[in-house]
Amino acid sequence: MFERFTKDARAVVRDAVEHAGTAGASSVDATHLLLALLDRKGSRASFALTALVADGDRESVRRDLEAARRRAGLSRADTDALAALGIDVPGIVARVEEAHGVGAMSGERKDGRRGGRPGFGRDAKEVLEETLRIALARRERNLGDEHILLALTARPGVPAEVLADHGVTHASLTRVLGEGGGGQACA
């Protein structure tokens, strides 16, 4: 499948591995893919993010991803569901971080190092599989970074939730990128 990835899409995958490695994560997850997309400039995904993110504030997207990481990757929906059961996730996070330091629930090493290169976790693999399905559905032969971004918005989870909070949904991306087939973004 990677032979069909464009230069930009390959850079996103490479940079996601770097984000995971820098954080000391045991594997690359969907959040690392989104962080790598936020770093991109001059690509189709970058164009779409610039067009859609309120005030072009990618840093606020990063802050929201960091907040979810501190909650052990729980989405707000997960946190709300646990609250309905009487489980105070913010309170638990505060107590764990008080005892073990900020980010202790993330599963990442505090020193940001781990042995070897992180592999791809289940959710990152699912995003990349969805990337292929989206490109095929759009009748586009090559998989670009815009397809990765579309895939992140097409499946539930923290990246889709955070992006939606900032005005980036599957529908809005499809509108900005065009319906597919020609590979041209629409105005």
From TrEMBL:
The record's annotation in Gene3D superfamilies points to: Clp, N-terminal domain
The UniProt keyword set, sorted, is:
Repeat
State if Lipid metabolism is listed as a keyword.
no
Look up keyword Repeat and say if it applies: yes
For this protein, the record's InterPro entries field holds:
Clp_N_dom_sf, Clp_R_N
Record's compositionally biased regions (Basic and acidic residues): 107-122
Region described as Disordered: 103-122
Domain named Clp R: residues: 2-183
Protein name stated in the entry:
Peptidase
Organism this protein belongs to:
Streptomyces tagetis
